[in-house]
Specification:
The complex is a heterodimer of chains A (246) and B (482). Chain A has 246 residues and is α/β, with parallel strands linked by helices. Chain A contains 9 helices and 12 strands. Chain A is 37% helix and 28% strand. In chain A, the strands form 3 sheets. Chain A has a 6-stranded mixed β-sheet, with helices on both faces. In chain A, strands 2-1-4-5 form a 4-stranded antiparallel β-sheet, covered by helices on one side. The two termini of chain A are 31 Å apart. In chain B, the strands form 3 sheets. In chain B, strands 5, 6, 8, 10, 11, 13, 15, 16, 18, 20 and 22 form an 11-stranded mixed β-sheet that branches. A 10-stranded mixed β-sheet of chain B has the order 4-3-7-9-12-14-17-19-21-23. A two-stranded antiparallel ribbon of chain B has the order 1-2. In chain B, 56% of the residues are buried. In chain B, helix 2 runs antiparallel to helix 3, helix 3 packs antiparallel against helix 9 and helix 11 runs antiparallel to helix 12. Classes of the chains: A alpha/beta (246), B alpha/beta (482). The complex binds adenosine-5'-triphosphate and magnesium ion. Magnesium ion binds next to helix 1 of chain A. Adenosine-5'-triphosphate binds next to helix 1 of chain A.
């Protein structure tokens, strides 16, 4: 489903990703770990189509298409979802209006009729339950004044509504209390099926106790220096990243 | 902002005016220029009573002593007042019994504008007094209104049929000495609307007038007079678009509102005159004097405006809160794109005790647009417990445009409570990317954010107008994103 080959990415002439190779198949869960500043969010942003970074080398195939040629909104409509490490506040735009626009853009892209107001509200209600998010949040403007944890939950809520093929969750677990962590993990697990895949970027192996990854990768200074099974996460927690230096 | 983001914003905000067309209807016009003879001719053509001619001449003589104002934040080109036609009327000016009789060209024009009269009549319950080139062409719903004693007609008709009311109230809120353009309007105004709501009547429908500038090189001088008697209510809508022409054209309108005890008037405007092309050539100069007086106790005036058009907009819908417990409100969204300039705001003059006013102003600047808010809150000595709340927000798209805020306070009573809030924000690249990532393209993302930003004001508009206004905001800021 996703095939990253020798990907190099720079910003202002400074190379941040230095040759990434990663292959993700339907049904898989991949975890990416790595120290601060190693390039995890950069990788996520490049996949989502952020144009502040420059791809200097390499290729990314998604569903047999050249992903890097697509506009960010088309990537989203084709099923790529990014759970932002720092979700953005959009004052004045209600969650309802925002999500209704988003889902109907996706449906239009897939030649489906737009959802009626009542069908949409039904969908909202359903998905709200999955992530145990309250109406007091969904009735507000997008992320405006949300607490850190609420913003993260809201990302999963949006993911639940949009039902992506490939979800990239950038530190969605950071800043969550124990209950919220369980809720988010449950949400992700409930949405998992054999056709979609998830890339989880995290610093903590505790999330990986709830969402069992098929692979754990370590991103270090712009390169994947180790890919292994889920036990790697435990080892990292114990030893840190230093031992992977060479 | 990255160069590419700038480029997208640029594309999005550089949309050409969508209502640019010109209707070919024969026009009966006076020669160009302005002098006492022209004014006599205007008055004669309209078969006006003597008091009207006198009013016009006095205004003209006063205007001649005045100088064109010079504003700090507007770049005004020279206007040659002798190069303007001050009167033009469509030739076919018979009164019609039905739409079949109306010039099909004219109907097609309304169609293009998206305001087909039939639909207006049947669907929305809106009475339409469509003013095209200075003479009222079509008035609907007159009978229904007449049953309630409501007078809603063109200004010219009011002059003929209700001269006493016109004589009593015309110029009582905006005297011809008020400012340069008010004097000019008072001298040469061609037509406009007149509305009288009798005691105790709630007008059951929104009254609306569509103004339109059309004839070649014709200045438009509208005059509207609304009188709300004791315990009455009316919601009045004004909306405008103009065909695309290459010449700068002058528009100097006057709106006067008089509220008696417990009366309430809601006046809503959507203004979309030709703003000029992307380089700043052409476009309407829009110098409007709008003022209402809450004469009676417990009366209320509410101005709502959505300003997207014109090359230059200069207007300050104002309230004189004379009675006790009176309320003045001003809700405004003003967009300036490309090379448009807007200097708009309000004046709230608190005279009566316990008078209250609210000002919500939302400026949106894009391209090279310059947007100024200028607002005066004045509390006079006897206005005990006057209150004002002002919120004044600016939104910038791109970094070539400008937003300026000039709040003026003149407070002569210590019990006054005045609050002022102001914000300036930009549509951030990260906000747009967040929307993109959810499948919403940049154009629609800007639309969402703009409409969210202006919601507080749009919500004050009557339903059918709100939808139109939302579209307008989108149209005036969006284009084809590649
Ligand atoms: N806009 C930018 N301008 C300059 N440098 C940048 C920019 N964005 C990211 N970087 C740099 O790129 C490197 C990788 O950043 P990135 O956000 O991808 O790290 P990360 O692995 O997600 O870190 P964290 O675990 O702290 O979230 C960092 O050194 C960062 O400073
Ligand atoms: Mg990060």
């Amino acid at each position: 489903m996703l095939e990253i080959k020798n990907l190099h990415v720079a910003i202002d002439g400074k190379e941040i990703l230095k040759g990434i190779d990663l292959s993700v198949k339907p049904g898989e869960v991949h975890a990416i770990m790595g120290p601060n500043g190693s390039g995890k969010s950069t990788l996520a942003a490049i996949l989502a189509g952020r144009n502040t970074f420059e791809v200097t080398k390499g290729s990314v195939k998604y569903l047999n298409e050249n992903l890097l040629d697509l506009a960010p909104e088309d990537r989203a409509r084709k099923g790529i979802f990014l759970g932002f490490q720092y979700p953005v506040e959009i004052p004045g735009v209600s969650m309802v209006n925002f999500m209704k626009t988003a889902i109907n853009e996706q449906r239009k892209f897939n030649n489906l009729e737009p959802l009626s107001a009542s069908d949409f509200l039904k969908l909202m209600r359903e998905k709200k339950e999955i992530v145990e998010i309250t109406s007091s949040l969904t009735n507000r403007s997008v992320n405006e004044g949300f607490s850190g944890g609420e913003k993260k939950k809201n990302e999963i809520f949006q993911m639940a509504i949009l039902e992506p093929r490939l979800a990239i969750l950038d530190e969605t677990d950071s800043g969550l209390d124990i209950d919220a962590l369980r809720i988010v993990a449950n949400g992700v697990n409930k949405l998992k099926n054999k056709d979609n895949a998830t890339i989880i970027i995290t610093h903590y192996q505790r999330l990986l106790e709830h969402i069992i990854p098929d692979f754990v990768h370590v991103l270090y200074k712009g390169k994947i220096v180790r890919s292994s099974s889920k036990e790697l996460a435990l080892e990292l927690e114990e030893k840190g990243y230093e031992w992977l230096k060479d | 902002m990255s160069a590419e983001q700038d480029q997208i914003l640029d594309q999005v905000t550089s949309n050409d005016y969508k209502y640019g067309f010109y209707t070919d209807i024969e026009v009966d016009a006076l020669p160009k220029g302005l002098n006492e003879d022209i004014i006599r001719m205007i008055s004669e053509k309209k078969s006006e009573p003597e008091f009207m001619l006198e009013f016009r001449l006095k205004a003209y003589r006063h205007w001649k002593t005045m100088k064109m104002p010079n504003w700090a934040h507007l770049k005004l080109p020279e206007i040659n007042y002798q190069d303007i036609i001050y009167y033009a009327a469509p030739k076919q000016r018979a009164t019609y019994n039905g739409l079949e009789e109306v010039d099909p060209e004219l109907l097609a024009t309304f169609e293009k504008l998206g305001i087909p009269l039939e639909e207006q009549k049947h669907l929305s319950g809106v009475a339409v007094d469509a003013v095209m080139d200075s003479v009222s062409v079509k008035t609907t719903f007159r009978e229904t209104l007449a049953e309630l004693g409501i007078i809603f007609c063109s200004f010219s008709e009011a002059v003929q049929e209700h001269p006493d009311l016109v004589k009593k109230y015309m110029g009582s809120v905006v005297p011809y000495t008020d400012n340069y353009f008010a004097a000019l309007n008072s001298a040469v105004f061609s037509d406009g609307s007149f509305c009288y709501i009798p005691k105790g009547v709630r007008c059951p429908m929104e009254l609306s007038t569509y103004f339109r500038i059309n004839a070649f090189n014709t200045g438009q001088f509208e005059r509207t007079l609304i009188i709300a008697d004791d315990d009455s209510y009316v919601s009045y809508l004004e909306g405008c678009t103009a065909p695309q022409r290459d010449e700068n054209r002058l528009h100097a309108a006057i709106v006067e509102i008089i509220n008696h005890d417990n009366a309430e008037v809601k006046y809503s405007t959507v203004q979309n005159w030709y703003p000029g092309n992307k380089e700043g050539k052409g476009g309407i100069f829009n110098f409007v004097t709008k003022r209402g007086i809450c004469k009676g106790d417990n009366s209320k005036i509410s101005w709502t405006q959505v300003e997207t058009g014109s090359a230059i907009t200069w207007k300050y819908p104002s309230c004189i809160l004379k009675g006790e417990n009176t309320i003045g409100e001003f809700y405004s969204v003003a967009v300036t794109n490309n090379h448009q300039q807007a200097d708009t705001g309000t004046k709230m003059i608190h005279i009566g005790k316990n008078s209250r006013s609210t000002i919500i102003s939302k400026g949106i600047s894009a391209g090279f647009g310059q947007n100024s808010y200028r607002g005066l809150v004045k509390v006079l000595k006897n206005a005990d417990n006057a209150r004002n709340f002002t919120q004044c927000d600016s939104l910038l798209l791109g970094d070539q445009c400008g937003a300026h805020t000039f709040p003026y306070l003149e407070i002569d009573n210590e019990s006054a409570i005045i609050e002022h809030e102001a914000t300036t924000s930009k549509i951030g690249e990260d906000q747009i990317f967040y929307c993109n990532q959810r499948g919403i393209n940049t154009e629609n993302a800007i639309g969402l954010i703009i409409n969210g930003y202006a919601k507080e004001v749009l919500n004050k508009l009557p339903m059918e107008f709100a939808v139109e206004a939302q579209k307008l905001l989108q149209i005036s800021l969006e284009g084809s994103v590649g």
